[in-house]
Specification:
Largest sheet: 7 strands, mixed
Distance between the termini: 35 Å
CATH architecture of the largest domain: Sandwich
Number of domains: 3
Strand order of the largest sheet: 5-4-8-2-1-11-13
Shape: globular
Number of strands: 21
CATH superfamily of the largest domain: tricorn interacting facor f3 domain
Helix content: 25-40%
Radius of gyration: 25 Å
CATH class of the largest domain: Mainly Beta
Length: about 625
């Protein structure tokens, strides 16, 4: 089987043998019995064998829907281990080499959620381990799109979504957020397509069909990303730009006009941007999440393209991850709030600086509403509403609720309120600087918080109630609430409508997306189809080009059996793959006993959705056991 990679590997192996030493990354774990440092979602032994650098050489076959190639790991066997263990999921291992010599490997038993450990024998002084492999038929990280599933419908497309533990389905690796390494890659793709990664990137298609990448800052596997397709690039400023399919590049460039200003605003808040360039790739519609903070190249949903820059706070969120998450990373997925809570807080500070306090207050209030809903769904006493999660034996995606985001950000907001913004900003600047390119657990953060901000002030700590927030359920009573000046005006107009005022007479002319969302969210669930018709006639919700508004409206339409919206809803479901929109809409169909419509639509458009979205929807539509 090794032969089929020979045309790729001969120059590659010579490069590795003759090239300069690889720049070392950071080992993720330390030798300790501290249970808070144990990552239960990796089967690798990167705590004993230091992972320094990856040289990746792969061939992307759009025809076979397959990635094949070799991953060469530079290691430091500091503890004289007898084997290197890597994570895999649905990979075929073709061969393995240790310091250039072929070795026999073994595969561990399949473990639910984790896949199979790859066990490679190594010697005390081994420094290089190469694994040649092929991806399987059901890699959870990959979505292969036929031309008709893209925006331009002219060429196939591939993209990865490695968070949380899905990198192991497209390369054998130590797949944990606390395991950082540098990497270089050589990617061969079909003629006419461009390859992009979370690294230094090209800005135009080349004639060789081979692309070279370098990431000289150590990153964990979940931040490794690959996209291959017919895309083009447009510059925003000297260090920012956008990639998209040619048919939508102009819209994307216009929508993200202020991204360069966002980077500068973020730097003014919390220190220098340390990743070189910041570019955004807008993916085809099947992308299952809003955005992914892949270093140097944010992957973004096309649903953010509203035409009026009203949804760009999503980009502020992904940009903020360049500090919280990418720069300072949660050590395990149980500490996920350290990534997302900090990022939500930072996002809102960016938007406040750019759009004003009343605008950011709307983001805070909508986030609070999301938190309350999520706590009610999970159960007010559920441990899943703690900030410090317990995901032993579970898929880490079980922790991808609003709790890490909204409870986490409101906890930080509470600290800011109690110590003052100036002190809190100084603390955060020091936190990002002192922990740069490192990982951290919840317990380590709380110790740092006490030493560097609270300084043993018992009265202050009791007032904040740290343990209630971090190790307690629900929404604490001292959760801060934003000023709601703009939303009070929205509440007044909604009340006017419900008391009989015609929709066209309402004072809505200057409303933002967030005001419209608040207007609709707080409508009673008992709205009739006739009331829906009156609102639609005035505000054209059914044909809204704003995905956030459209999705909420379609949920309301299903609840009220407002059938005039159903054709547009079907078009929406055929062209949107974002789980945030799909899950509540299909769930509403099931809840309102419209299972036949849900199953019919899902069967028709399932292949447009990413495998991760399909897994979620299978559970919602009761196509699989909800426990699994």
């Amino acid at each position: 089987m090794f032969r089929k990679y020979s045309f790729l590997l001969l120059p590659f192996l010579l490069l590795v043998a003759c090239g300069p030493g690889n720049k070392p990354g950071s080992s993720a774990k330390t030798s300790t019995v501290d249970s808070t440092l144990i990552d239960v979602h990796t089967q690798s032994n990167a705590d004993s064998v230091e992972i320094k650098h990856l040289d990746l050489d792969i061939l992307v076959s759009m025809e076979k829907k397959q990635i094949s190639g070799c991953a060469l790991w530079t290691i430091n066997n500091k503890n004289k281990q007898k084997e290197l263990r890597l994570d895999t999921h649905d990979l075929t291992i073709d061969s393995a080499f240790v310091d250039g010599k072929k070795v026999q490997v073994t595969m561990g038993d399949f473990v639910e959620h984790l896949g199979r450990a790859l066990n490679i024998p190594i010697a005390d002084n081994s420094t290089q381990v190469m694994v040649c492999y092929t991806t399987g038929k059901h890699p959870r990280a990959l979505q292969w799109l036929d031309p008709q599933q893209t925006h331009d419908k002219k060429a196939p497309f591939l993209y990865t979504q490695s968070e949380s533990i899905y990198a192991r389905s497209w390369l054998p690796c130590p797949d944990g957020p606390g395991i950082r390494y540098t990497y270089a890659a050589r990617v061969t793709v079909p003629k006419g397509l461009m390859a992009l990664m979370s690294a230094e990137n090209p800005q135009e298609v080349n004639d060789s069909n081979v692309y070279h990448f370098k990431m000289d800052i150590p990153v964990p596997a979940y931040l490794m990303a690959l996209a291959v397709g017919k895309v083009t690039f447009k510059k925003i400023d000297e260090r920012t730009g956008v990639y998209a399919e040619p048919g939508m590049i102009d819209k994307v460039r216009s929508e993200f006009e202020d991204v360069g200003k966002m980077v500068s605003t973020a730097e003014q808040l919390y220190g220098p941007y340390r990743w070189g360039r910041y570019d955004v790739l807008v993916l085809p519609p099947g992308f299952p999440i809003g955005g992914m903070e892949n270093p140097r190249l944010t992957f973004c949903t096309p649903t953010v393209i509203a035409g009026d820059r009203s949804l760009v706070s999503l980009i502020a969120h992904e940009l903020a991850h360049s500090w919280s998450g990418n720069l300072v990373t949660n050590a395990t997925w149980n500490d996920f709030w350290l990534n997302e809570g900090f990022t939500d807080y930072f996002e809102r500070r960016i938007m406040e600086a750019m759009q004003g306090k009343d605008y950011a207050d709307m983001l805070w209030e909508l986030g609070y509403q999301d938190l309350v809903v999520n706590v009610n769904e999970l159960g007010g006493q559920s441990k899943d509403t703690w900030l410090k999660l317990d995901l032993i034996g579970r898929d880490p995606d079980d922790g991808l609720t609003d709790i890490p985001y909204e409870k986490g950000s409101h906890f930080l907001k509470l600290i800011e309120v109690n110590v003052g913004r100036e002190r809190f900003d100084k603390f955060l600047n020091g936190y990002f600087s002192s922990h740069a390119f490192k990982t951290i657990t919840t317990e380590q953060f709380l110790a740092y918080l006490d030493s560097n901000l609270l300084k043993g002030d018992t009265v202050l700590k009791n007032k904040i109630g740290i343990n209630r927030w971090v190790y307690g359920p629900g929404t604490p009573q001292n959760c801060p609430r934003a000023d709601d000046v703009r939303f009070k005006k929205v509440d007044h107009e909604r009340a006017q409508y419900l008391n009989g005022t015609a929709p066209a007479q309402l004072a809505t002319k200057e409303w933002s997306t967030h005001e419209w969302l608040h207007f609709l969210r707080k409508m009673p669930s008992s709205l009739t189809a006739e009331q829906m018709k009156s609102l639609d006639g005035a505000f054209k919700f059914t044909n809204s080009g704003n995905s956030e508004i459209a999705d909420l409206w379609f949920i309301m339409a299903v609840r009220a059996n407002y059938t005039p919206a159903y054709a547009a809803m079907e078009r929406f479901l055929s062209s949107v793959g974002r789980r945030k929109f799909l899950e509540p809409l299909y769930a509403e169909m099931m809840k309102t006993k419209q299972e036949d419509m849900a199953h019919k639509l899902y069967a028709q458009y399932k292949n447009n959705y990413h495998p991760l979205a399909q897994e979620s929807l299978d559970r919602i539509l009761e196509l699989v056991d909800k426990k699994h």
